[in-house]
Amino acid sequence: MIRNKLICLEHPNPELNINDQKTFRNLIVWLEDQNIRLYKIEERAELRKITSPEWNKAFEKYKEDLNCPKELKTDIDQLKWILSYAIKLEYSDNVDQYRPMTSEKLREAQKKLTSAPSVKSVNPFDNLDFTSPQFEIGVRALANRLHIPYHPDHLTILAAVSRVVKENLNKEALKQVIPEGQPFPLFEGQGMNQNDADVEQAARILRLLQIQSLREMQTIINETIVECQDLITVEPKTDTRLGKVGF
User: Known InterPro entries for this protein (predicted)?
Assistant: First the structure.
């Protein structure tokens, strides 16, 4: 994805190693100079000092000025967003140049569809842009909720999310974690005589938890008593030679 975006922006080396910090920093400076141009030339001085220990501080300010989403934590994710932003600006600056190309492609697509029946999709997923920064942010937020480990490709994470939901959030799986029956009437019955409503609610909950704990303990005690009785009252062996029948 990063390679394709660099090709779109006509970067001289789209195969560069973005995991190298020096290369990464040079790329940020290149994007600012060539496409984004958020700062005036003299304001880019700190960003150009790619070997300075203060570069990260300058980069944090640059991201803040760009309104880069704070949810993006890694350099790769932030770079993807900045590349998408640069492409958006590039298109906005050259609308007249790109519009004929877009119109020509649309006309070609329409010609292909004239002989085919028109089918209107009702699937909302057909209208989603799976490469947009907003979609990627949403996927990563959902993965965090499901405790799915990080992966640089958000589409791979989406596949993992789908598998977790399919295997663990289906009806049969939920039956094992969601209790059946009516919920306990927490606010009915004798209260705890607390003046504060929040304290009263907390006290009632603690009382229920204590009752549950006592019931579990009583169950364990009963099971222990039964096991002890089984050991003590087991049927003894009888020696028939010691007994006699009659008088």
Answer: RTRAF
Do 111 and 97 contact (CB within 8 A), yes or no? no
**CA contacts within 13 A on the Cβ side of 175:** 2
Q: What is the mean pLDDT of the segment spanning 68-78?
A: 87
**What Rg do the C-alpha atoms of the chain give, in angstroms?**
34
Task: Name the nearest CA neighbour of 138 among 121, 155, 123.
Answer: 155
Q: Are 161 and 146 in contact (CB under 8 A)?
A: yes
> Is 86's pLDDT higher than 70?
yes
Q: State pTM to two decimals.
A: 0.42
Q: pLDDT digit string (tens) for 91-101?
A: 776 656 655 55
How far is the C-alpha of 51 from the C-alpha of 29, rounded, in Å?
12
Q: Does residue 156 carry a pLDDT above 70? A: yes
CB 154 within 8 A of CB 139: yes
Nearest C-alpha neighbor of 87 from the set 18, 35, 128, 49: 35
Report the distance separating Cα 220 and Cα 235, nearest Å.
25
Instruction: Round to whole Å and give the CA distance between 77 and 74.
Output: 5
